[in-house]
Design a protein that fits this description.
Number of strands: 35
CATH superfamily of the largest domain: Transferase(Phosphotransferase) domain 1
Largest sheet: 7 strands, antiparallel
Distance between the termini: 141 Å
Number of domains: 7
CATH architecture of the largest domain: Orthogonal Bundle
Helix content: 25-40%
Number of helices: 17
Strand content: 15-25%
CATH class of the largest domain: Mainly Alpha
Length: 718
Amino acid sequence: MDVVTGPASGTVLDGRYRLGAMIARGGMSTVYRGLDTRLDRPVAVKVMSPQYVADPTFLSRFEREARLAASLGHPGVVAMYDQGQDGDLVFLVMELVDGGTLRDLIRERGPLPVPVVLAVLDPLLDALAAAHAAGLVHRDVKPENVLISARGSVKIADFGLVRAVGSQTVATGDVILGTVAYLSPEQVATGVSDARTDVYAAGIVAFEMLTGRPPFEGDNPMSVAYQHVHSDVPAPSTRVDDVPAQLDELIVAATARNPDDRPRDASAFLAELRDVRTALHLPIVPVPIPVRPRPSPTPPVPVPIDHPAGQTGTRMLPADAASTAYTADTAKTAEGAATTPPTRVQKRPPPVARTRTAAARRRRRWLIALLVVLLLGLISAAGGWWLGGRWAATPAAAGLTQSQAEAAVREAGLVPRVTTGHSDTVPDGVVIGTDPDSGVEQLRGSEVSVLVSAGRPRVPDIKAGTDTATATAALTAADLTVVTGTGQEFDDAVPVGAVLRTDPVGGTELSVDAPVTLILSAGPRPIVVPQVVGQSQADATKSLTDAGFTIGTVTKTFDARVEPGRVLRTDPTVGSTAARGSAVALTVADSITVPDVRGRSTKDAIAAMRDAGFSVTVGDPAFDAGVDAGDILRSDPGPGTRVDRTGASVFLVPSNAVTVPDLTDQKVKDAERTLADLGLKIDVTSFFGGDNGTVWNQSPAAGGRVRPGDTVSVYVLR
C-alpha cells in the first residue's frame, strides 16, 4: 500500500500549466485538470510518481515515448501536447477528455449489447491501427485506458507510458509489469510484445464488454497470468446468450494463445470486425456516455491505495472520491471502537385492572422480573459480542502442520484457505506463515491464507518439444528462475525454438529462485545443397530429394545461353547449408527456338511459327533468284535463335521472284499475254519481218527467275 499525494492544486508547472482538481490517480502517476495559461486552454496534466524521477534511463525513454505518442495525431488517441520536468516533478500535458472510461460504462451497465460493443471496439482498433502503422505498441490496453468523452467519442490513453516505465520497473518473481487481466501469454512468458499483443488485449476488452467480466480471474495476479499462458480464452457465448457466432469466432481468434493465430495487427482485426458488422447487418449506434459523480468542493487528501501486482495504469477518480476514501479508511476505527449499544425504547405496559387478585399481580411481577433478567442477559451478551466478539486475532500458525493450522484458524472463528509455496528452510507440509500475519485482528468469518511449505523446489519434468512459454510458466510456478540457453543444439525431432532439455534435469532439488537453463532446439542439423546447376529439372529434383531436401517453388526465366529446362540457380545456393527437409527453390531456363521455314510457302511458314509459340508478322516481299515467289526468303530472328517465351514474335520476308515461262513455239501475241499475266514485259526481235510470228528463242531462258516488271526478250521467225 502506498499513499498518493502529488503537488497541491494551484501549483504552476514550467511557468505555464496551472493544476486544478485531481481527476485520476494510480501507482505510477496522478492526473489533474489543468489550464495552459499561455493558450488559455483546458488540459489534463499527468504528474509521474517520485520514484521514477531519479532514474535517468526512465527520463530518457519517457521523453522519447512522449514524442512518439505525440506524432500519432489520430483522433482516437488522447493528444499529447507537451512534456517536461519542473524540479522533481516530471509531467505530461495532454488533451482533456470530459466524460468517463469504458471501465465506468461496464461497471454501470454490465454486459453491453453487441452493437454497443462494436461501437466502442471500432474506434479503439482504428486508433491502435494508426499506432501499429507508425511502429508503436500500446502494451496496456484495458478498459481504464479507453476514455469515452461527453460527446460519445472513444479515445485510447497512456500510449507508450508502460514502455517508459519498463525501463525502471523490471518483472521479476511474482511481479508482472502491466495489468494482469489483459496480459498476453507472450508478455507473461517472455516479456516480448508486438502489435499482436495489443490485438490480444483488445480481444479481452471485447470479451469483458460482452460478458461483463474478464475471461480469467483468480486469487492473485500469478494465478491469472498462469491461466493466460495455459488456458484458451473461452468464447463469449459460453458466458452470455445472444452473441453472434461470427463475433464469437473473431474474439476467440483475437485472443489465441499463439500470436501467429491472431490477426497480424489492429488493422487486420478492424477489417474482420467490419466484415462481421456487415454480415450481421448490425446498426451503427452511439456509444453510451458513462455517468460520472458530480464534482465535490472537498479538496483532495492523501488516500492509501492498494495496487495489484504490477498494475501501473491510472484509474479515473470521481471528484468526491477523496472524501469517500477517507471515510472508508476511518470506518474500521469507528466500527472497532468501544461503543454502547443503542438504548431500546419500550412502551409502558397498559394499567393493570383493579379487579385482578393479589396472587395474579404477584405472578405477573415475577414474570416481569424474569423477563427483565433474561433481557439484561441478552443485552450483556450482545454488548460483549459487539465490543470484542466480532473480532478475532489470526492465530500463530508458523511451524504447525497443515491440519493443525487449519484447526487453529477455525477455532479462532476464521476461515482457512490453504496455499502452497516452496521454502529452503521450512520442511514439506509445515506452515510457513499466514496472511494476515499472526495477531492481526479481523472480523470473525474472514478468510486467512495459510501458506504451507512444499519443501525445496524440484525442477519440473519438461518434455522435449515443449514451447518456451509453457516451460517458463512451469519453472516459474516451481519458484525457480528461468534462464534461456545461448548455445545451439540440433535435433531432427524437436522443432526450432522448442525446449530440448533443462539444465539441471527434471527432478533435481534446488534452492528457491535457483536458475534453471532452458536448452532450446536449433532444429535439424543442416545439410549441404548439392550441385544441380546445369542439370535438367527432373535430374535436379532427384538429386535434391536424395540429399534430404524438398522442392520449393520452381521459377522459369529466359536465358538465351542455356538450353530450356536446365537449372540456372537454386535458393539456398549450391554449396550452402540448410535444414534437412527444408525446401530448395529452383530457377529453370525457359525459351523457345525459332524454327527454319525458309523456302516454305508463306501459309505453311505462318502455321509453323504459331505452333512454336510465336506471333507472326509478314513483311514486304524481297527478290532472291534462288527462291520462288511466295515462299519464305528469311525470318527475323533467324532460325535456331532462342527467344523469351513471353511476347515472342517473328518477322517473315517472302520472295517475289517470278519464274520465266517457256514461250517457244508461242505466237507473239500469246507470249505477250503470258508474260503480262506474270507481271513481266516483252521485247520482240523479229527476223524476216512480221509482228505475230512464232517465238523460237527467249532470254532469260524458261525456268529462270526475274524481278516483277522485268523484260523477257523473245526472238520471232515469220
